[in-house]
Amino acid sequence: MHTPPFIRANRLKRLAEAEAHHRLAIALAVGLAALGLSLPFLKLSVSLIVTWDAFAISSLVLAWLGMLLTDPQARVREAHLQDSSRTAICFCVVLASLAGLLGAGVLLGAAKDLQGGEVLRHVALASLTIVSSWCLVHTMLALHYTHVFYCPCEGSSPDDAGVGLQFPEEEYPDYLDFAYFSFVIGMTFQVSDVQVTSRGMRRIVLLHGLLSFAFNTIILAFSINLAATLL
User: Fold this and answer.
1) With 90 as the cut, is the pLDDT of residue 180 above it?
2) For position 6, what pLDDT does the model report?
3) Which domain of life is it from (predicted)?
């Protein structure tokens, strides 16, 4: 049966407006489904990596739907009253991404003892894990920057919003502005044209820069390992 376009649009909008804990629940359900489907056919270690990839990719899709289809000011203000665990969810996902990277390392290590198509499948899965984990970290931190910017503290008033970051010629940045800020730190370990103007935000940026350095160092080590595996 053909679904009318307006119904599909409404479903997409509901997904885009889902709060952090709802997105987490959906992504966990997708990951558990991937575990159940892959476990009978794959080794446990490989199946767990597939589970993480399913979780990470579904989290990315849901996060970017919200970033592209919703207004950050209205969405964050509403979420501030409902979702007190947003910060905890953000950093749990970041830590889980580190675990995903370690899993990719184990996968690449196991690939050395394989031959032919098995090696390529392990390398492809490890590469997907690395890319999805890296993107998920900086996407989650972009959402966290948005939340802190528009809701700097518990009980804050609308006049308090906008403290901590100063975007050039942009008083009310959107999600893509925060994604730009987050991914620049992820790639360069520093800020660019966006000024950090509060102590609390500087602490988050410092932690983000340290995490980015650690992630990129691990990814460099994996790249060297990958080259050694394929040669």
Assistant:
1) yes
2) 43
3) Bacteria
